[in-house]
Amino acid sequence: MSSIKEKFNQISPSEFFYRNRDLAGFSNPSRSLYTAVREFVENGLDACDGKGILPDIHLTIKAVEPEKPDPKQYILTVKDNGPGIESKHVPLAFGTVLYGSKFGLKQARGMFGLGATMAILYGQITTNKPVTVKSSTDGKISDEYELLLDIQKNKPIILKHKTKDVAKNGLSVSIFLEGDYSKAGSKIRDYVYQTSLITPYASITFDDPKGEKFPYPRMINTMPKSPTIIRPHPYGTDVETIRRMMVESQFEIPTIDDSMIEKVRKDLGLSKKNLSFSAIMEKAKKRWKTLSRQVRVVIALMSFLKMDFEKLNKIRIEDIDVPNKKLFYWDFGDSTSKSIDMDPESHYYKQLTNTVQGETLTAFLTKKFQRVGPTTAVKFAEFAKFKPEKRIGTMTNQELAKLSESLQKFEDFMGPDPSCLAPLGEEPLEKGMKKFFKPDFLTVIQRSASAYSGFPFVVEMGIAYGGEISTRGIKVYRFANRIPLLYDEGSDVVLKVINDIDWSRYKAKGDPPLVIVSHICSTRIPYKTAGKENVADRPEIERELKLAIQFMARKLSVFMNKRGQAEAAKKRANLYAKYVPLIAQFCTELAGKKNEPNIQKILQEEKAIENE
Amino acid sequence: MSKKSEIRAKALSKKAQDKQKIILEMLKSHGAKIYNDLDKGEFPKFSIPSRSVSNIVYDKKLRQYILGNASALRSSKNTSQLRSFTQLMWLAFFANRLTTEKKSSTLRDIYYSSQAFEIDFEDQGESDNIIVDLEAVTSRPREDFHIFPEERSSIFGDLTIEYTIPGYEGKTMNLSNHPDGYAIGPSLTTAELVDTTAEIVIAIEKGGLFTRFVEEQVDKKFKSIIINTGGQAPRSTRTLLKRLHDEMKLPVIILTDGDVYGEHIAMVIKSGSANAAHLRELTVPDAKWVGVWATDIEKYKLPTIPMTESDIKRCYDLQKDPRYLDGIWKKELEVFLRLKRKAELEAFSKYGLTNITDKYLPQKLELAKSL
Questions:
Q1: pLDDT band per the 50, 70, 90 thresholds, residue A112
Q2: CA angle (A346, A333, A282) in 5-degree steps
Q3: The CATH classification of domain B197-370, taken from the options 3.40.50.150, 3.30.70.330, 3.40.50.1220, 3.40.1360.10
Q4: Is residue B254 classed as helix, strand or coil in its secondary structure?
Q5: CATH match for B3-148 among 1.10.10.10, 3.40.109.10, 3.90.650.10, 3.40.50.10330
Q6: How far is B98 from chain A, CA to nearest CA, in Å?
Q7: Is B112 a catalytic residue?
Q8: Are residues B79 and A575, on separate chains, in Cβ contact within 8 Å?
Q9: Which of A104, A428, B288, B305 is a good FRET partner for B176, with 20 to 30 A between their CA atoms?
């Protein structure tokens, strides 16, 4: 074990990723070009999302020598209108591996920094050319860097740095890399197309190496709510997580040394003054509310020890024995261990025990977890057979395991807080799909948040039928956290659910011109493979997908029925228009009449019915 | 033309004219009803006797299959019926023209004529079906509307007829002048039956035997009119047989092959078919089937051929038919089933070509009197 750890520590992160670049999607020129596009575009979108800016993303891929056959060198440039990166951070952000700000429990497209720097690293390895970063945070001055990455040292090498006046803030990253556009082209175009579908509030343009332009203008002008960082949900926390959370919520008994005493004196406003024990206590009482926990603990100790600062300086606290209400300390003066009894009635006693034993179970649950209120916490304690006021600091390992287990089993926790998720929302999805597909029928649904293994997720879907949709059969666009999933769809849970539906039941028979958009948002998408192209079939996710599709399919069926009726009425009117005049003609001669009967009454009546 | 026959010709053509008038009036009244409905702004409709199997019943008194009381409403409002409604209207309209202009046509003619009027029959089967609809609505056979079958059977013997068709009106003809016989077509079916010396009608299933009978002068020897039904008798032939029986008061006997199909050919002449249950003028209930019976096979030691499986199945099917529940009809079926063999009319040739006319026929004619 230790040898592996040592070995890992010996190489720099950049060297590690350089050696394992396949893992990050940089295995060959075709895949690398696609992955680099994704990383930069997603970074740009994330940067804008984070600041609530409607994104303008410009993607350009140019061949250095267009006549050469693939694979060859390309220049990949992605420019956004985001907040930019402060000049001093640019070299570290783009010239080191594992520098980023996007860690925490909230939904984001990817892990910032890693992918983009991998792309830069790949570009540098294959072309030996620097990355060009232009960043403006104020919309006035742009800092332009040319950087190389020192792989061994994981440090940026700044080749050039200059500033320039600009009119807009934003970031532009440009790299040289070996790529194969003839192979990766369709995948990149698909990616841009589908990204613009799931990001209808963004304007995305793509200028490809062949001189073709793919503009996807913004379809809506409102941003979806951006996700927030939140506390964990009880489901999905394991013993280790809980232990760490407990340690955080406990406070150690402060070591009472010179600097601590100095701090207490300062906080009490007694830096220069020497007061008696009782005077100090008096002072502390007055200032209690302004005091920090640490200082409060020291005061509490002093209250039982009945010591002033001078005396306190000559002892060391050994132990606080809560069950026996005894306080042990070492007296430097006579070099002996002494103990005193603590008065449990004293309000300082509570302060001390709280510190030693940590918070009560109910307070711990309500403070550290999301979706747990005081009532639920008490209910849970009852369920788990703990006293609600049990101090978490007194828990044994067995009790801890029991707590962790019970947290998974208790059914009355509210669903995870989806505010850490960023679904697109029904309205933007509907507007986007409407403009994208121009269908005859469209319906969308966003299911309420649910959780698998404690990870919250939200499913939102849309179904579009007919109109300008020319494909025969069901075309499915899959998204996870606003990223298009382009490949490996066969084994995907979304496809599984869609294929399990008997569409003829919903009046969509044969090969209906049907488009289904599926978007799964989660703090952790359960991908089946490292390629991150297909979502595993977790029963909770499968259920949500199924309910969403069934809901929409029922609406589709209503539409199809109405449409069927309208078509039938039209067909009927056509039949009448064809045959009734013939009947009139024949019966006129048969009845020996000169003029034909007036059939307009019948035909108009039918038309009126049709138009209803 | 003698004065006497001139008077009769006028009388006869008046009879034909009366019939035509009745048909035309009937068509006109149907047309007027439809016309009035349309003019009132209503979708025209009429009821039509149901021809479904459940509505076909055997009438013991009439000795034929008839339609029951069930009827179906045909409405032009119902889009699934609109097309056939229009087709039927067209057919009535077309039949009206045929009848007025005294032009004859065939089932196939009807199918092609429809195409000039955008009446889209998918095939002749569909147009044939509409023709049966018209028969059912009007209770008249299609021949009354000048629509004739294409199958031609023939007739020979001393029978004088008088044509009623345009161009031949009043012209008479004796049907013993041409040894090949006369085709039973529209002109013969619509002709008036004037005179005959014959005392019996012999309907025979096969053309070969018909020729033999003419050669052997069966018409003269037995004072008979010989009719070749050409297998299952066409409806015009059955109509003619009925008229010979009803108008000329001639008994009808039937000679068929000695098998179950022959037996049924005789039965259809006698009491009609389920297919024509909507019509009542196609049967000769007094007609007699005289052979070849199953019992004749043994009696005359006829050369036989084995019955096929479908022959045997047909026997069992007919045993369920109420008309086969008694008399020779029942008995002969049983014998066929016992023998599992059948014999054709030509089988008598084993004993000489004229054996059938010399020996068998006289015996059967004698027997017929007692049947």
A1: very low
A2: 30
A3: 3.40.1360.10
A4: strand
A5: 1.10.10.10
A6: 12
A7: yes
A8: yes
A9: B288
